[in-house]
Write a structure and sequence with these properties.
The complex is a heterodimer of chains A (835) and B (337). In chain A, a hairpin with a 2-residue loop joins strand 4 and strand 5 (75-77). Chain A folds into three domains: 2-244, P-loop containing nucleotide triphosphate hydrolases (Rossmann fold, 3-Layer(aba) Sandwich), CATH 3.40.50; 257-495, P-loop containing nucleotide triphosphate hydrolases (Rossmann fold); 524-827, Orthogonal Bundle (ABC transporter involved in vitamin B12 uptake, BtuC), CATH 1.10.3470. Chain A has 835 residues and is an alpha/beta fold. In chain B, strands 1-2 form a two-stranded antiparallel sheet. In chain B, helix 4 (79-93) packs antiparallel against helix 5 (101-125). The longest helix of chain B has 26 residues, at 46-71. Classes of the chains: A alpha/beta (835), B mainly alpha (337). At the A-B interface, helix 11, helix 12, helix 13, strand 18 and helix 14 of A face helix 1, helix 5, helix 6, helix 9 and helix 10 of B.
């Protein structure tokens, strides 16, 4: 054994030895050893929860193992991180694409791929286009990735991995969302990579893929290696036995033989909606209706329609009754393909999830009866054999298969009129699969129509009495009983898509930004134009009322105020772009002025004054480190962390000064307020800084990294961005910009006052929102923030010239932010309520 | 495994499940009382406690409202404007005339509900970010505050003072109101159909939508119910304080969020612990009292609040078991079994 290992180390791309990993005392991996050789496709098989993804997380540096060693190219690597892994030529394509939805395709590539891999011809864009075409990606480089289809995102991921010319390529269930054609392209590319000497680890559920692609296979079960073999030396049955640990006779329940007669129970006629058109289908009582097709041909859309989640035209009858979209949403039970997003409330208990759709039946008087609820839940948990420590266990602690069973518990308890299941066994282990099939069959036998979509033809063959095959949103074939075979299903789907290239291109097109105007309105700079127009209109109106509005005195004072707010709002923008928020900017600006008021006074030497400025920046940086540290290393939410700093800074301010005091030196004030014509220098500085930062945000790597973290932190980490560092630095940058703002404030206030500055928290957020920066992170502009700050200051100034009371100041501020937010959200078409 | 379900089923039946938030807050309160006994007995004198309780009660009620909002993954910055508005409407409209107290209170309720409706529509229906929407609403509410009061304070009425500021059986009336508010809100959330759905929507809106729930209505509804609680808090405050200012609600923004967070409700939404929120409000108010009794400055008092909040949040967020393991591993590496 030791000799073997020694030999293997010499020639292997990677050797994992004795890897163990525990989560909260539960072993995910136990003493796993694996050696991966150059030029081989090494399949990693196993049920869900067997530890495949964990093991590959360890191999790619995203997960740190508790024990064991990793040897790459014969050298022991300690503390493997994603960045080190990338250096070592390890590339991973995750099961869930690690893409950044708010950034464009090109930006996604640039943030993940070191520039040297893109510069072989000197033209980055050309190189990117080529690497995308190579994997059959059809989108545009400037498309926002959030608008791509799942399959396209996967192809983007693959392209990013392949362009690195990795020595080890890890593919985690790459074919799950892909259509047949894309799978062929993928296999072809993987083979080419392997022939070129790349070691490929291929994680899959599908035995067929192992046969087609792999040269060796390792099976994991319960976090332990059950065996490694050459693919041609092991039979499917042997593999299956290794995977499940027992021989499975039949995973499918018997079909209903007598279903052929009797009136149809479910009839849908001429259904059309977004993604499907003119679909008609019917199923008799006791029949399970399957929906098959190449991924992206409308199956999911049709199922969402039948579940009442998307509107459609046409009619649906179940039994005698006609169902509208609204009826269906209330009376259907829907098992989504994406359990985490649409299936379960992960933070709630098994009981709460299971009972959710049946609550009205547990009512006793105005309140719920716990006894009724508990007895029903326990009955269903037992009959579905849900493996859970208790009914009060948090549902996220269950395995994928058991989570899916909880979805079923809820579906069954709700006594639905129809059960709609989209990929019901995705991410579910073999044992639980059989049970899910059995339950679906029982539901169907009980007289509830069951509709199942699956991309696995074998599954539909085993389960369904009737299958419709979809292509480009329409039904191309309906198969019954004995006709339902894997071959015929795939045949029908593939034959129907004779122009499948066209069809898949259609499916791949992003749904937004198709027209120039649309692209602009959805883009980041639309708010700037809108704000400029509003400012112009407001300015003209005020000028028509009061001619002193454009006096140079007023222009100067507006610009000074704008500079103070502008710098602080720029800081807030950085925090928001990183996906956080900084409530402490207001108290921080006041605190920094208080610091200054001890040093920058008349009669102090220049050295002391400079020391004061240095202390201001130091204080700001410390506040940023505290904010960032609490969020990144203390697990605080941004609101909680900056709330703590908010209160603490207020305390510190009044600790230093319990009343206003410490006049700021007049010479310094004059210096800060220096003007060129009517324009203050600080305002010019703000404009220049805004433009520089805007450029950096789009084109420099720190800007891309900042937006990457804000857009999707997990993905950013997966592509090698040091998220914690970026996050902390973002808050330091925020505080530093606030410090610039408080230098302006210093001149404006002229005194250290512990009560000042607090209001800048809210007005900075207002300015950023007006400028169109998303509070969700990842999207926004500094230019917009500048205009937002300008508009706020202009409005406050206008109320003075229009002789309006303070009431109106508040009113305008409130109305501005609400109206702006409503307009932006409507234009960007975010759907309320479902996110 | 299946056998374990049955076992834990029976054992869980009569178990009084105390959430982590509740345990934390209760322990914190006990520590605070112990510290009071040792270092500042005057903070636990009858007079001090009776003076503290009405304010704790108001904060508890307001924080309950904030909890409902936070359970929906939101945050309500308009609590400051709302409480201030209720206070000025009640004190200005019913100035010196007990008979006008009820109409004034009802007018304030209507205004608060209008604010809640606006928040609810903006956030639930139009999908705006809660910070943005409630920031806007807050400014609009302050426009009302200044419109009604002109920024000047007025004395409360005798009737208000006796209802909100009085005592029954030696306990301040406000405490009864707050206990009632806790009981009603908790029952509504945990034991009614609407409440359970409300909780589910907060935990995962998309999944709630897919199961057929009215996501927008629940999400917006949180803001509406919150306003009812702010209103109750504001009315009580208008009676407790002899001459409330026009900006009386300002101090409730941070304090209410702090109470929610200390009570263990995640700012990311989901499950909320209302009892823990109320006790956290009591803790925060008594902490002020304790620090004051020590005779320190306002600055130290503020810093203590910040520290309490930081420690409170850290208790929930830092994975102590993981940290312990790491420390142990650092000192003596264990062979992994």
């Amino acid at each position: 054994m030791t000799e073997d290992t020694a030999v293997a180390v010499a020639e292997s791309t990677m050797v994992l030895f004795g890897i163990s990993k525990h989560y909260d005392g539960v072993a995910a991996l136990t003493d796993v050893s694996l050696d991966i050789r150059p030029g081989e496709v090494h399949a990693l098989l196993g049920e869900n929860g067997a530890g495949k993804s964990t093991l590959m997380g360890v191999a790619s540096g995203t997960i740190t193992s508790d024990a064991g060693t990793i040897t790459v190219h014969g050298e022991l690597v300690e503390g493997l991180t994603p960045a080190v892994a990338t250096e070592q030529g390890i590339a991973i394509v995750h099961q869930h694409p690690a893409v950044l939805p708010d950034m464009t395709v090109a930006e996604n590539i640039r943030v993940a791929v070191p520039a040297r891999f893109l510069n072989d011809t000197g033209n980055q864009y050309e190189a990117m286009r080529r690497m995308l075409a190579d994997v059959g990606f059809t989108g545009h480089l400037d498309d926002r990735v959030g608008s791509l289809t799942v399959a396209q995102k996967h192809l983007l991921e693959l392209a990013k991995a392949l362009v690195l010319k990795p020595s080890l390529l890890i593919l985690d269930e790459p074919t799950a969302p892909l259509g047949q054609e894309a799978v062929d392209t993928l296999f072809e590319r993987v083979r080419r990579a392997a022939n070129g000497g790349t070691a490929v680890v291929y994680i899959t559920h599908r035995l067929a893929e192992v046969r087609v692609l792999a040269s060796r296979v390792t099976v994991l079960r319960d976090g332990k290696v059950r065996g490694t073999a050459r693919v041609e030396e092991i039979t499917d049955d042997e593999l299956l036995a290794l995977i499940v640990g027992r021989q499975l006779d039949s995973t499918f329940p018997p079909k209903r033989g007598d279903a052929a007669d009797g009136a149809p129970l479910l009839i849908a006629d001429g259904l059309s909606g977004n993604g499907f058109s003119d679909v008609s289908l019917a199923a008799r009582r006791g029949e399970i209706l399957g929906v098959f097709g190449i991924v992206g041909n409308g199956q999911t859309a049709l199922l969402r329609g039948l579940a009442g989640l998307e509107s459609f035209t046409g009619t649906v009858h179940i039994g005698e009754r006609a169902f509208t979209t609204k009826d269906l949403r209330r009376h259907s039970a829907y098992m989504p393909a994406d359990r985490h997003r649409e299936g379960l409330m992960m933070s709630l208990s098994v009981r709460e999830n299971g009972a959710l759709s049946a609550l009205t039946r547990f009512r006793r008087g105005p309140l719920l009866s716990r006894d009724k609820e508990v007895s029903d839940i326990d009955r269903e948990l037992a009959s579905l054999a849900v493996k859970t420590p208790s009914r009060e266990a948090v549902v996220s602690s269950l395995s994928g298969g058991n989570q899916q069973k909880v979805v079923l518990v809820r579906a069954l308890l709700s006594q639905p009129s129809i059960l709609v299941a989209d990929e019901p066994t995705q991410g579910v282990d073999v044992g639980a699969r059989a049970e899910i099939y059995r339950i679906l069959r029982e539901v169907s036998d009980g007289g509830v129509p069951v509709v199942v979509a699956s991309s696995d033809a074998k599954e539909l063959e085993g389960l369904c009495d009737r299958v419709i095959v979809m292509s480009r949103g329409g039904v191309v074939e309906t198969l019954l009983g004995e006709q339902i075979t894997e071959e015929r299903l795939i045949n029908a789907a593939v034959r129907a898509t004779g122009h499948s290239r066209q069809a898949s291109t259609q499916g791949a097109k992003p749904v937004v930004g198709s027209t120039r105007l649309g692209r602009f309105l959805q883009g980041d700079y639309a708010p700037v134009v809108i704000l400029a127009l509003v400012m112009l209109a407001l300015g003209s109106y005020v000028l028509s009322q009061n001619s002193r509005y454009l006096s140079s005195f007023n222009i100067t004072s507006v610009m000074i105020s704008c500079a103070a707010l502008g710098f602080i709002a720029m800081g807030q923008t950085v925090a928001l772009l990183s996906g956080g928020i900084d409530l402490s900017v207001g108290p921080l600006s006041g605190f920094l002025v208080v610091i200054a008021s001890f040093f920058i006074n008349d009669g102090r030497s220049v050295i002391v004054m400079l020391l004061g400025v240095a202390l201001m920046f130091l204080g700001a940086a410390s506040a940023g480190v505290v904010n960032g540290g609490l969020i990144r290393f203390g697990g605080f939410t941004a609101v909680a962390a900056t709330l703590v700093t908010y209160i603490a800074l207020q305390g510190l301010s009044s600790l230093l000064r319990d009343a206003p005091g410490g006049n700021i030196a007049g010479s310094v004030t004059n210096l800060i307020l220096t003007k060129v014509g009517p324009v203050p220098v600080v305002f010019m500085a703000l404009v220049v800084l805004t433009l520089v930062m805007e450029y950096c945000l789009r084109y420099r790597s720190w800007g891309l990294r900042l937006r990457a973290v804000g857009s999707n932190e997990d993905s950013a980490r997966a592509v090698g961005v040091r998220t914690d560092r970026t996050g902390v630095l973002a808050y330091v940058a925020t505080s530093t910009l606030v410090c610039l703002g408080s230098i302006v404030l210093l001149a404006q206030l002229g005194i250290g006052d512990p009560a000042q500055g607090v209001g800048y928290t809210l007005s900075s957020i207002t300015a950023v929102v007006l400028g169109g920066t998303s509070l969700l992170g990842g999207r926004g502009t500094f230019v917009g923030t500048l205009f937002g700050a300008g508009l706020i200051v202009q409005v406050l100034n206008a109320t003075v010239f229009l002789d309006l009371s303070q009431t109106w100041q508040y009113f305008f501020q409130g109305a501005l932010i609400v109206v702006a937010a409503v307009i932006y959200s409507q234009v960007r078409g975010s759907r309320a309520g479902v996110r | 495994m299946i056998a374990t379900i049955a076992q834990s089923t029976t054992s869980a039946r009569h178990r009084l499940s105390a959430s982590r938030g509740l345990v934390t807050v209760v322990v914190a309160l006990m520590i605070l009382v112990a510290a009071g006994v040792l270092f500042a007995p005057s903070s636990l004198s009858k007079g001090a406690v009776l003076g503290m309780l009405p304010f704790a009660a108001v904060l508890a009620i307001v924080a309950l409202g904030q909890t409902l909002v936070v359970m929906q993954g939101g945050i309500d910055l308009s609590v400051a404007g709302s409480v201030s508005m209720v206070v000025v409407i009640v004190t200005h409209e019913a100035y010196g005339n007990d008979a006008r107290v009820l109409p004034a209170a009802l007018a304030a309720l209507a205004a608060a509900l209008a604010a809640g409706l606006l928040n609810g529509v903006l956030i639930g229906r139009l999908g705006l970010n809660p910070i943005v929407a409630t920031l806007g609403t807050n400014a609009l509410l302050y426009a009302v505050v200044l419109g009604v009061s002109g920024g000047t304070p007025r004395q409360t009425t005798d009737l208000m003072a006796s209802i909100a500021g009085g005592t029954t059986l030696g306990v301040p009336n406000a405490v009864y109101f707050s206990v009632l508010a806790v009981v009603v809100t908790t029952t509504a959330v945990k034991r009614t159909v609407a409440g359970r759905r409300f909780e589910a929507v907060g935990a995962n809106g998309a999944a709630a939508w897919a199961t057929g729930l009215m996501v927008q209505r629940h999400r917006g509804g949180g803001y509406l119910w919150a306003q009812v609680l702010y209103w109750l808090g504001g009315v009580l405050l208008a009676g407790i304080i002899n001459k409330p200012t026009a900006y009386q609600g300002d101090s409730y923004l941070l304090a209410s969020v702090a109470a929610v967070v200390l009570g263990g409700t995640s700012l990311l939404g989901g499950r909320g612990d209302l009892v823990a929120t109320a006790l956290a409000a009591l803790f925060l108010t008594q902490l002020d009292q304790f620090v004051l009794a020590l005779g320190v400055t306002f600055a130290v008092q503020t810093l203590t609040q910040a520290a309490a909040l930081a420690i409170g949040v850290a208790l929930y967020t830092i994975r102590w078991s993981g940290l312990r393991r790491q420390l142990r591993r650092g000192s003596a590496p264990l062979p992994v079994t």
